[in-house]
Give the backbone structure.
Amino acid sequence: MRAIDMHVHVPRQPGLPEMSIEPGLRRYFKVRSAPERGADLAAAYAGWDIVGVVFSVDAETTTGERPDTNDYVAGIVNDHPGRLVGFATVDPWKMEEAVEEVERAVTRLGLRGLKLHPVHQAFHPNDERFYPLYRKCVDLGVPVLIHSGFAAAGLGMPGGGGLKLKYGAPIPGIDDVAADFPGLTVVMAHPAWPWVEEQIAVALHKPNVYIDLSGWAPRFIPDALVRETNTRLQDKVLFGSDFPYLTPDRWLKGFEDLPIDDEVRAKVLVDNARRVLGL
Ligand SMILES: [Zn+2]
């Protein structure tokens, strides 16, 4: 296995209409083709010899759009054992129902983490009304992957599709959660531009916080984060692509050109994710 890709979006569940942010995302990332079925996604990852962490995002309260179900994601994962790891999605605004769904998704469906997207789902990660979600993840022993920084979703739509970037700030949002739940493993998704320095501070300060490098072609990852990846954060940074918006094979090619030591590369590509996922 070449690498573990921490950040992979599943194709839209068959039968559901495309989400409104999707055409803009494809334009921004210049996506030419994307798998239409879970089997195609799994086949692509098999071809690359990469293990992918797959998920969707339930933002039904803010968008009115029906979510892909966790059963659908689990189905894709279970059809391709050893190739994919699934994370649950819940809409935090569904409150107790969301907490129960995390439990069901992990204990009944075999999903191994939770994905949250504060910008798309319109919530502050440190809003204590949602703390039961984190408490549940601690009880279940699963990590939470939280979108951080800029979001390409909504870009160019009127009002940015109504999406508010403030929810992506690592401080106070993610820092507070990591402080209040020291037993919770938190992965900040993406270089959190324009708050990369804050993101570095949180990951340095909190042993339970990690960063995935997804969503940015390696040559655009801010220098400060590349430098910290090679030094102080070498046990805290994880490879992620953001497939299908970026493809992992092209990302890995670009990664070769970054000034990162070989033993650190192995940590970023495989070892750190193994620890986070408990594989
Ligand atoms: Zn993503």
